[in-house]
Design goal:
Length: 325
């Protein structure tokens, strides 16, 4: 659990600010979106002027979250405080880093390895399964400090969403006793937890099913089946009416194969530009595989980007994977 003194220090930055912006990372997932929107509600309740930004479109599956419609609509150009939410480094903020540069103070709230973390103050807890766990602690801190109740059904739903998406509905190895304890507290509030888990983890459209079936049928295995690789080409998206946003979670089918220690998804986003997603089992560190190319993440999940011809990109990522076996 993150130390109370660290939360108190971050709270000082929040209390001093009148106008605050929240920055999500590019290619937003459930944790960055949910954590930012939970903070958005908290800051509004504390009487702050607040805005939330993301360099990419927020997936519609998060539309049930309160304030989903507030992304990228603020008329304010400068803020007293910029909070980077679930961002391991400034590059992950994309073009929205312009708000960070203009802010008087900056705060980072994150659970990734802090190798390239940034901000005047970094509130980081790598033991947390999700940044939503840290945000939960921030909210509880302010409730005690201000003598007010800030947690409500919508905030609890957002935090629960962040936790289940980054913990795989408690199936990933990053799930701790703390994760389960916080989830248990959030479950006391009124929202459809089981329905959310289904929508976030299991549900998929027919076109995404077809994309998954096509790509998984071409999965290739290397190093005595210890490495599994799937590839999403632009032609796959065109054939199924999907986009790169629809690839989330498909890689888990590969890492779930017995004997596979490293699963890699290579996604063609633009001409000669690829997004690499990595999942691992013990003892392989996914962030170590990604760090060879300036990427990062967690022990079991990480990513990076590579440019070049597909064959060269595949060779590079396979070499790093082999080096980490």
């Amino acid at each position: 659990m993150i130390a109370a003194a660290k939360i108190a220090k971050a709270a000082e930055y929040i209390d001093k600010a009148r106008a605050v912006c929240l920055i999500c990372h590019v290619n937003p997932d459930g944790d960055t979106v949910s954590s930012a929107l939970a903070l958005f509600s908290l800051l509004q309740k504390k009487g702050k002027e607040v805005a939330v930004f993301c360099d990419n479109k927020i997936p519609e599956k998060f539309a049930f979250l309160q304030n989903f419609d507030k992304f990228n609509i603020s008329s304010l150009k400068k803020f007293d405080l910029a909070i980077a939410v679930d961002c391991a480094d400034e590059g992950r903020t994309g073009t929205m880093y312009r708000y960070v540069k203009k802010a008087i103070s900056t705060l980072s709230v994150d659970h990734h390895k802090p190798d390239r973390a940034f901000g005047d103050y970094i509130l980081n807890d790598t033991s947390a399964a999700a940044t939503a766990e840290i945000v939960y602690r921030i909210i509880r801190y302010f409730e005690k400090a201000d003598g007010k109740t800030y947690m409500d059904d919508s905030i609890a739903a957002a935090l629960f969403c962040g936790i289940i998406t980054d913990s795989g509905a408690f199936s990933f190895s990053n799930t701790t006793e703390e994760t389960l304890a916080i989830a248990s507290e959030l479950k006391r509030y009124s929202f459809d937890a089981s329905g959310m888990i289904y929508d976030m983890i299991s549900a998929k459209s027919k076109k995404v099913f077809e994309l998954s079936a096509s790509v998984l049928s071409r999965c290739k295995f290397y190093e005595d089946d210890r490495i599994g690789v799937i590839t999403f080409r632009k032609s796959d998206f065109a054939a199924t009416g999907t986009t790169s946003e629809d690839t989330e979670g498909i890689i888990n089918n590969v890492i779930n194969v017995k004997g596979v220690l490293i699963a890699v998804a290579v996604t063609e986003e633009y001409d000669k530009s690829f997004k690499i997603s990595i999942r691992t089992k013990a003892p392989v560190d996914a962030s170590s595989v990604a760090s060879a190319f300036g990427g990062g993440g967690h022990v079991r999940a990480a990513g990076c980007r590579l440019s070049g011809y597909y064959e060269d990109v595949l060779d590079k990522i396979l070499k790093s994977a082999r080096d980490n076996l």
